[in-house]
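User: I'm curious whether this sequence folds into something compact or stays loose and floppy. Could you predict its structure so I can see for myself?
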Amino acid sequence: MDHQKIVALSNLYLNRYAWPRHELRNKFVGNPDIIVVVPAHNEPNLAHSLAVLHNCTPPKGEVLIIVLINESVASSEEVLDNNINSFHKATVLNKVYKQQVLHLQLPPKKAGVGLARKIGMDEAVRIFEAQNKNGIIVCYDADCHCEPNYLIAIEDFYRHVNANLGLVHYEHKLHQVHHEAIVNYELYLRYYINALRVASYPFAVQTLGSCITVRSFAYQKQGGMNQRKAGEDFYFIHKVMPLGDIGEINQTTIYPSDRLSDRVPFGTGHAVGKYLSAPNPDYPVYDYRIFEDLKFINEGVESLYHQKDLSKSIPESIASFYSENSFSLDELIKQSGSATNFRDRYYQWWDGFQVLKFVHFARDNYYPQIPLSSALDWLDDQENGLRFKGKSREEQLLELRTFDKAQNFYIK
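Assistant: Here's the prediction. I'll summarize afterward.
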């Protein structure tokens, strides 16, 4: 895409969809190639997380870090005081890269990580537009850490492939306090994605916010970050999926926090808190038979286009889900001009959100949850590179991390 088209799209995006205020107007001078966006709400460890980022080995391109310390206008005095303290610590921090720290009060109905990310990412678009540059926007959380080669690995990824979006490999720190909870939770996350890959689902990627990197052009083309107070990362990543050219950046690692949190009804903090309040050594997860049903469809999706009696070939759980959601394969076949077109249209509907809905539907109506150990035994049987059996949970997690990091997953 040439610069003129990028600028035209930027003007369209910024005029119609971006956060209307220009927070960095007349405050920034530079020519960055990578802009790291760090939302921070009541984050006591912000300065340390930023210090880790500033200690990264410098890439070839220029780096700008945008920190958005934010609270709702209805936040407590304690949150406001903590944010003021974080603002001071962030501004006096020893810096390697250019950094802009903003302190914003957000509308109560919209205040949250989604809006904070959006404001920072929209500012990045404005800066890149002024340079006629399709730069790299990086999401980094205010309570996470990264490896020293973090910025270099991101830069190298985009230099060597024509990617729209890259997802950095992640690993939670295994602290003693929440050790069992975080080991089980991360095993569950990795089981889910690997089970989707066993099921031949083409868009099986992790969806943690601190793993996201994206080209400015792709960000704009798909309407930018949403303003959700939770799950903004999941919805954003799957919104970009239709563009293709999405891959994993496995040459470095981001380390999300494992702390307790009740801010949102899901995610690491919620999962850790839920486990600590009611420990269950079985750690129930989705039954692998759900993914076997999915595999039946995904492996033969184009062949469905040529079948005459679909009712005899589709697993009952999926046929029932189609009916529940008023989705008709027969109608989709009629609307499609070829098997390839049918496949494309099918996956426009069968996106990551729809798949998750199906998994929950199948869990509630067909396949109740099973112990994590049983799920991992099944995954071990499916993947030749895994050796789970007879190992402790922590050893299984380390094994699965190594397995995941060795993959070269890329969606064209």
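Summary: DSSP finds 16 helices and eleven strands in the chain. The first helix runs from residue 3 to 16.
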